[in-house]
Amino acid sequence: MKLTKQDVVARFLPATLAEGAQAEAFAPSNIALCKYWGKRDKELNLPINSSLSVSLAHLGSRTRITPSDDGADHVLLNGEEQPLDSKFAGKVIAFVELFRRELDQPLTIDTHNNIPTAAGLASSASGFAALMLALDKFYDLALEPQLLSAFARMGSGSASRSIYQGFVEWQMGHREDGMDSYAMPLEQSWPELRVGLLKVATGEKKVDSRAGMQRTVETAHLYQSWPLQAAADLEKLTDAIVRRDFELLGSTAEQNALSMHATMIASWPPLLYWQPDSVAAMHQVWQLRADGLPLYFTMDAGPNLKLLFSAEHQQAVCDAFEQLEVVAPFSG
Amino acid sequence: MKLTKQDVVARFLPATLAEGAQAEAFAPSNIALCKYWGKRDKELNLPINSSLSVSLAHLGSRTRITPSDDGADHVLLNGEEQPLDSKFAGKVIAFVELFRRELDQPLTIDTHNNIPTAAGLASSASGFAALMLALDKFYDLALEPQLLSAFARMGSGSASRSIYQGFVEWQMGHREDGMDSYAMPLEQSWPELRVGLLKVATGEKKVDSRAGMQRTVETAHLYQSWPLQAAADLEKLTDAIVRRDFELLGSTAEQNALSMHATMIASWPPLLYWQPDSVAAMHQVWQLRADGLPLYFTMDAGPNLKLLFSAEHQQAVCDAFEQLEVVAPFSG
User: Fold this and answer.
1) Segment B221-252, tens digit of pLDDT
2) Same domain membership, residue B210 and residue B162
3) What domain count does chain B have?
4) What is the DSSP code (8-state) at residue A183?
5) Please, what is the average pLDDT of chain B?
6) Which of A251, A268, A282 sits opposite B251 (nearest CB)?
7) Is the peptide bond before A269 cis (omega within 30 degrees of 0)?
8) Which residues of B touch A (CB under 8 A)?
């Protein structure tokens, strides 16, 4: 019989928890340089490949948990109450239940994202990581980082990486209960590294990442070659980070992202997150690179590009792309 | 030692040929429903996978060969003389030399394409097929269709299929000399089938198909899964043609084309033939299909879409896409 999230989490918690008073936590969004794409276990969000990301410093989710005083749970997103039967509130409450269990304490879960929701900027990653960190404080669990990461993964796979700042590697793990599938921060920093968020579109996606990766795994012949590529790319990225080799970092991240999109494009029905403006921006990056600017991009399951460059080229990049939001992941 | 084109062709020709007087031949362009992508032998244009196409009836190349009266070869394309050191003339003369050899007869090779050159509409396929057919007449060779196809393949791989009208299958073959790698027409016709040529851009490509497929084979991890997919798609297409199952034909052709593009996108440097307008057209096709119109597309190594639909839906398709050039491959 397959393990459920409840089974797995319960092993690491006391039989009952004490009621909490209030807690608040922040978790950064993260941009994968080697993507997570494909699950070997849908219940536990166990990945087919290991991945590597860089967290976005101040951009992310802040979640506050307080006892509710009217006897019912409340879920707020960016200040707006979400109906309990909405997809968003349903996921949040289901995650809270992994910890609350028999405890009869209704809660208000108030989340603020300072990044666009559901536009390929992985707000679910920072959201579930912030929720996990807030739950840890609220129930006074004092869980180890690996456990926080593994539990956050059950909310959203890439949330496992948003537990930390900086470069983060999520090891796929091999255990059936997934408890070796958690992220750890890399010790290296890269103060000059910049991530530029280029917003092509901010609407809700028609097919979310979860459904997208499932379709890819089930219908794209080319997906068969993905796990080996991801493993090779992860090694190249680690090497690039250790040696601070920007061209290796950028080229590996760009090819990895494009290969992930290639597996979607080869799915049926075809899954193309790109908009015409995405393609225009891609051609623009390639032209700038051909003209000598060391500029690369990555993309998640959405139409937006995330540009990768070094601080010394920030002016040139901002001149080429108006309204670019530039993040310095290692600034603080 | 690797076999050269000269070695292979010479085996099937008399030691010397008689001078010719004049000859003219037409060959259709063809649209692959299962694409040729990747070579196992670059000299002989031997493919890694078998492919299947439909020829475009009246659209193609007409080539006329006449003796030149000023002692030098001349190559004309659409009425304009091409310098002998140009890429185009170089390829044409190199192909002619496979047959002319020691014969001291300068020629004028005059080709007219009624399709845009080098814009993903495979003018090299119809061009080399027409040249092969014209050479066969000019030198009075009376070669079997399989030989004409195999020799045309040495000029441009997909030219092997442009020897015929209708549905054509190019068997990859296994022999080192490639003489089992030729195309044969399928017996089935499909009078209601329509191909709509949607021109997104008509400029010369920065990376031609030959260089594109080489880059893909050498750098795209995902290419490893391509040969098996192509084999599976070819079987589905043959089945669709025998049963006149349009949805199976269209969906298989579209996924095959997108998978080929996916292998390019996963290459390094990335190879994206799509323009913003290509992506806009793709989304439009998917929307129309979601709205109930049985419409699919295929794309070659270029930005243009080739729409696939049935005669009964021609008006609806033409209403959606202005300036569509519609071809009825089995009309005459």
Assistant:
1) 999 999 999 999 999 999 999 999 999 999 99
2) no
3) 2
4) E
5) 94
6) A268
7) yes
8) 220-226, 228-229, 232, 251, 254-255, 258-259, 261-263, 265-266, 268-270, 272, 274-280, 282-283, 286
